Amino acid sequence: MRLFTTVTSLALIAAAGPALAQESGSDDGYTMLGRLIYGWGTPKVAIDTPQAVTVIDQQDLDEEQPRTMGDLFADVPGVQAAGASARMLGQAFNIRGIGNAEQTGSQNRIIITVDGAVKFFEQYRTGSFFGDPELYKRVEVLRGPASSTMYGSGAIGGVVNFTTKDATDFIPEGQTGAVRLKGAYDSNGDGKIGTATYAQKLGEDADMLFSYSQGASDDMEDGAGETIPATAGDRWSALLKSNYYFGENRDQRLTFSASRTDSDLKDAAVAQTGGSLASAFGTSDLHAIDDTLSLTYANEGVGNPWLDLEAQLSYSKTSTERDNFSLGMMCSAGRFSVLCPNTASYETTALKLENTVEMSRGAWENYLTFGTQLSHQNRYANSSVGEPAFHPGGTEDKLGLYVQGEFVWNDKLTITPGLRVDRAWLSPDAAAAAQGGTDQDGTAVSPKIAALYQFNDTWGVFGSLARTERMPTLDELYQTDGIGAAGRTASLNLDKEKATTVELGVTYQTSGLLSEGDSLSAKATLFHNDLTDLIAANPSGSVGVPYFRNVDSAKIWGGEIEASYEADRWFGQLAYSKVKSKDEATGQTLTDTPAENIALTLGAKFPDQGVRAGWRVQGFSGIETASASTSAPGYATHDLFVSWQPERLAGIEVNLTVENVFDREYRNNLSLDNAPGRNVKLAVAKAFTW
């Protein structure tokens, strides 16, 4: 791409230029469990949060050089992409066995936010999240339904929060502006990305950032040299973000954020998430646009224990357009409307108000957070033969009320109770009503209690008990085969899904273990999730039955270990996850269950040369689930990475990553397609500051 060539050339030429600053904001020197978590309630260090949580920061993103969302979670236990991990589109998330690999639906089972705006998309085998990794500086993952209190009932798997970049990430202290140019290349698929970022302080109290990224890739190959279909595409993204601070103590803030990702795929599989249906439905051209806007007012209320307010108005729209179907001759109303030119979108407007009050007394440090969240979602679809049956239109209005306490005794015991109530009203559009859809409403309640006790500076224990309910979605209520009683009909009598989860864990942290100033932190978690009234589709070809039904209960249980080590010259990281599941009716392993896996990273730092290098091995055991498409043999892969930030050429940053060093042919059981073979990634960036 022209932008890639220009940006890379400028960055390399500038390497011999004057000493300039590099991007800031890294947590270098702290283990992952030492990073702050903002999504739990009041900010807490990850290891001191009574829930399994992980933060991916800018340093991790630079070393990983993610091209898709599936690249992000190699070092996060219990989390991975589901669907099509190598494709620009066609991905969803799986947390502890929650997250569908084939349909990529399941609204609210895992809640995704970008700068606080809730994101969701659900269309037949297309994927659910289309954001560009170049937009983000931080990804926060909260595992388990205890997250439902702050984000919405039904978060059985958990929450993934994306934070976009800020001007202050690029402007060093004492300076007022920066331009950063970055070019990146992937050997597998001949992928190219160019990014240009401009950051500027606007006086003492304001700043702004504009970033633009453009990239393209050909089809990738697996370890056997075979083409992975539908992995080629073009994408551009842009971010505009500004902050304004005001008030007597500069404790008030206005933040505006707007981002867009525009993706264009030619000859992409209609069943974009892969599997056996990737060839059965042929290909089409796919154009996707993902927009996110938010306006946030925050007032920290310095000196006022009753005020720590945040109010946010957000807007999100994700839309797709498909045409040029290879099997377009089969286009017809009903089941085969999936082969007709079509458009689909999800559009959500939301308002969230949240305040935290401090009520500390004696040895107790007490906080109470309460809030409300209102949203209006419009689901739209149309095709050349009318509204497609696989994507019924309609609206959902939702009101949520929640309260969470955090009571800390003597810096040893933390107790966190919480309660959320959500009320929803759903209405079909005219076409869905003609297929039998009627107005529906419901209420979901999500209580929890969590606690952490710190025995001393080294050991702590934590646990939680959480229950959440997930109301049926527009798709689950109104989807039909589009052929009346001759096929599956609207599902108007669905019960809420229910999940009760118990977590128990232990934390360990120490310093001076092997050398002066080093640090080791570890967190181990056991969990057990009882699921009832799960919503699943009746088999294709069924006649005169609802499209969706409540099935028997299931259990998901397992454990996770997350550990990090940092020293002046060395670092290491461990992520281990084992998830087991059982369908109580059949005794089989649930189809969305990930294989037992471990990721071990070992590395060295050379501060005088500005070099950080490491090796990572990932191992996955074999697994058999109730579906052949989500069963797979075990495998192991190796990655290498090197980052170079020379002090004499400040502002230059070079990252080299080699994925799948030994060109292993393998398939993750949730990915449905073979993974890419060896891939050499190179990124070169140069920052100019003033």
Automatic annotation (TrEMBL):
Pfam families reported in the protein's UniProt record: Plug, TonB_dep_Rec_b-barrel
Signal peptide from the UniProt entry: 1-21
InterPro entries xref list: Beta-barrel_TonB (IPR000531), Beta-barrel_TonB_sf (IPR036942), Plug_dom (IPR012910), Plug_dom_sf (IPR037066), TonB-dep_rcpt-like (IPR039426), TonB_haem/Hb_rcpt (IPR011276)
Membrane topology: Multi-pass membrane protein
Compartments (UniProt record): Cell outer membrane
Keywords annotated in UniProt: Cell outer membrane, Membrane, Receptor, Signal, TonB box, Transmembrane, Transmembrane beta strand, Transport
Domain TonB-dependent receptor plug, first and last residues per copy: 47-159
Alphabetical list of CDD domains matching this protein: ligand_gated_channel
Domain TonB-dependent receptor-like beta-barrel as annotated: residue spans: 245-661
Family: Belongs to the TonB-dependent receptor family.
PANTHER family referenced in this protein's UniProt entry, alphabetically: HEME_HEMOPEXIN UTILIZATION PROTEIN C, TONB-DEPENDENT OUTER MEMBRANE RECEPTOR
Protein's name according to its UniProt entry: TonB-dependent receptor
